[in-house]
Amino acid sequence: MLSNVIQRVAALPTWAKTLLALAALVVAGLSVLLSPLVVILALLVLIVAVFALVIRVLRRRSLRRWGIIAATSLVVLLVFTGISNALYFGGQPEQANSPESQKQAAKPDTKLKPSKQAEQQKGGEQSDAAGSANAEELHPPVTVKITRVVDGDTIEISPSVDGKDTVRLIGIDAPEEAKPGCIAQPLADEATTQLENWEGSQGRLEFDEERTDQYGRLLAYVYDTGFGDIMLNEDLVLGGLAQVYIVPPNDRYADRLLKTQEEAKKDPLYAESSIWRLSEAKQNKLADHGNGLGKGEGACIPPPSEPTSSASATASPNASPNASPNASPNPSPDRDPNRGNNAPSSASPEPSGCPPGSYPVPPGDERDGDGDGCAGE
Fold it and tell me: What is the pLDDT of residue 123?
């Protein structure tokens, strides 16, 4: 069959052969440009030819024609698959396997180090990624157990870190508990109680630029690792039980905490107990760290002084003016300074009006048998 086609083409005039050659070139060019389509057509033809060969084998017929078709379609499929890959898909594998791309894949991206808790906490997700990365390199986070709550912004941990077991929650200031010479500030007990919810749980300490304060306490953002990875510093602000207090250079989460504080002012998590809902008089008892919280300066508020009973200016008519300095100047009727003592008072008998060897006692005393105001007669 192929020889007949060749003979017929050879018998054509020159111009017809030229046109046929041009047509063949155009078809070849289009086939190359549309190589993915040619690949699909060749695959379909090959499948049909294979089925036809199977049927003819079962019927014991000649395989020559369908064998040629199957072989031709297989050759076209292989050739145009290579052409299609070279034209349309050849650049990507080279780029993926190039040494430069491998170096880029092996090189870590130091610009993207978002904090885990910044993705899960409410508000402030966009702040301080670069500062967080630098601080974590200097002071990597550590996991500890919260053993005791000291007050609304201070806890104790175990095991100790750098020999210290007290942690001050940085970035916030909670109302102060009572201490010697100072009464408790408003909502101090509520802030402490709220922080006690995490007492005994596991926590993660995340440090900022400065790791300790002037009192030797650790400075950290504290996270509860067992329940949503909550930042306790932020939780107290959100509940209206602490205000933002930023002391540079520990200001990594300043924007985040300030945003949370604005939410707490409008709708605190614990509306029934919030520093932003206190009366002005009570807010004035809290420190105002630039947050517009009353007019407080955070000074110690001394407890009210207890009234002291003044001594009577006049002595008892039965009291001796020359009594011992250890005796009370004005003994009360129910408390005799000599009661329970074996030795009588050393008062002089002359001014007392009692006979020698006796001593004055309050009226009605059981030791005064004759009612003359003297005992020991």
Answer: 45
Q: State yes or no: is 168 an active-site residue.
A: yes
Query: What is the pLDDT at residue 353?
Result: 66
Its pTM stands at 0.48
Rounded to whole angstroms, the Cα distance separating 293 from 207 reads 28
Active-site residue (options: 156, 206, 217, 252): 217
How far apart are alpha carbons 254 and 257 in whole angstroms? 5
Residues of the chain with pLDDT under 50: 91-128, 308-351
User: Would you call 204 a catalytic residue per the annotation?
Assistant: no
366 is catalytic: no
Full set of structural domains in the chain with CATH = 2-91 (no CATH), 127-283 (2.40.50.90)
